[in-house]
User: What shape does this take?
Amino acid sequence: MMAKTNSLKRKFIIFAIIIITPIATTSIVSLIISKQITSAYDTMLNKMSTTNEIKEKLNDSFNNFNKYVLDNSEQSKTLYEEGYSKALDNVILLQSKSGIESRYILRDLQNSLRSYKGVGDNTIKLSSNKDGIDVYYTNYVSTKEIFNYCNIFISKLSDSYLKNNNEIYNNLKAKEKYIYKVLIIYIVSALLISILYTLFFLKNILEKLKELVDTSKKVSQGDFSFYEGKKTFIYELDILSLAFSAMINDIKKYINSIKETAALEIKLRNEEMNLLKYQNALKQSQLRVLQSQINPHFLFNTLNCINQTAISENAVITESLITSVSGILRYSLRMMDRNATLMEEVNVVKQYMYIQELRYGDRIKFNLSIKGDLNRVMVPGMTLQPFVENAFIHGIEPKEDGGFINIDIHELGDSCTVIIEDNGCGIDEETLNKIICEESKLKHIGHTTGMGIRSVVERLELIYEEKGIFKIESKKGCGTRIYLQIPIKE
Assistant: This one.
């Protein structure tokens, strides 16, 4: 657990903290100082704006006062009073936001405004009697003088605000300057620490990597001597070093195991070669025995001789029967390991069915329907024959009343569909499942070949590299239907 405190992740986090903390601190402090300066400016501007509004409202009030003295208009009197009220309200508003010096000025200004209102109201009252200017002149002059005093106080208030805000601004600038000096020292110190930390960190990594690279070169040259790396201050590198040591030991053991296995395999291979030679000699001797038992040439010549005898005796049916048997035998021997056209397959099936029709008479009926050019459809030799044999041997032959075998071949797009159907005994569910589930070890009984249905399907799937070529439907006692979907390819 202690080793994980020196993990690479922990070191990266410390490095990030060293770099990010000064930057974040500087940004936050700068933001605070800027906000304080902005706030001070906003306060100063608001106060100056309010002071200016006091002056404007007071001037409006005095101007309307003069108008009323001249024309005694009620509108002028109303505007005079409104200007005074707004000016007084602003003075009261500033008192809660100002310093001591400004408050004294605001107090004097407030008193002067009240005096201005009192004397002004008295002047308006006297002028309303229309007794002549001598009656209200003194009050008028006093009102004007008080108005001037108010403007003087307003100017003093503006100067006071400017002075106060300048002091605040200067204090903030001095404070900002001091803080920036401290931050510069802090950032420089953090950078120096991070540089030293990085150099130490990289030194550990590079030394360890160089050690691993040197050992890797030795391993690539076949030197699997025991490796034990130096300890570092980085947990992950120490784990990597231990894993590398374990890997070298495992490789060394594995190579020794391979050498022992190779020696054993050489011994086994020599024994297998001797066994194969023995088996090959045995097969050759079996082949010679078979060849000595029956020679295809002799068989064909004999069939040909019988055929000629049948012709000379005018035995037409016997001659056609021998011709069909000879054709089937020749085709099965010649085309077993070759490809044929579907037309050639159909012809050999015709010969087979001709023989069976002669044998069984009305018990067997063979129907053939062809739509398309079968000469351009290629299949492995002896593809259709096993299906027809199965339909006859397992479907029709066991039935006492016989049955029919229908073959329907038609082109559909880029494929040729072959349907072989019989109304024979059908296939029980267990056997059907074995055929569908690709059980290729079922025993096959045939007249011309030893190939079963699954062998034919496997050859078709191999040659066309496709699945789903074969489909079978059957029910016990209801016959069997086989579908072949053969692609039309070169």
About this structure: The beta strands are 339-341, 364-371, 378-380, 403-412, 415-422, 470-475, 479-487. The domain at 336-487 is CATH 3.30.565.10 (Heat Shock Protein 90).
